[in-house]
């Protein structure tokens, strides 16, 4: 490979150095037990750079009517594990708007509508996660 080809491939190689959403099947702890979901504080206009920042790991059965303060209204990306659902609320105490996310990666929550004028970016204040 010549130098020009190497320079053209460099941005593609560096893209892997940024955050990227994990595959739902990969949401497992080191001991092999399954996580229900992972929520992230950062996203990006570029999908391969989403799911970055601080991570909130959600276990199956977690029922949090109040988000930890470091994550309250700061979630911008999330991934839900296989055979799991994550239900979220826009206000503390499981009040306000609600949405259920099924298995999959949701790298940019601003693409998911919350009512007429809002979206789910930086809008999650409570959650409940279940797996079958």
UniProtKB/TrEMBL annotation:
It comes from the Eukaryota. It is a peripheral membrane protein. Pfam families: Syncollin (PF15138). This is Syncollin. Keywords: Cytoplasmic vesicle, Disulfide bond, Exocytosis, Membrane, Signal. GO terms for cellular component: zymogen granule membrane. InterPro entries: Syncollin. Transmembrane segments: none annotated. One of its GO terms (biological process) is exocytosis. Functions in exocytosis in pancreatic acinar cells regulating the fusion of zymogen granules with each other. May have a pore-forming activity on membranes and regulate exocytosis in other exocrine tissues. It is found in: Zymogen granule lumen; Zymogen granule membrane. The lineage of its organism: Eukaryota, Metazoa, Chordata, Craniata, Vertebrata. Residues 1-19 form the signal peptide.
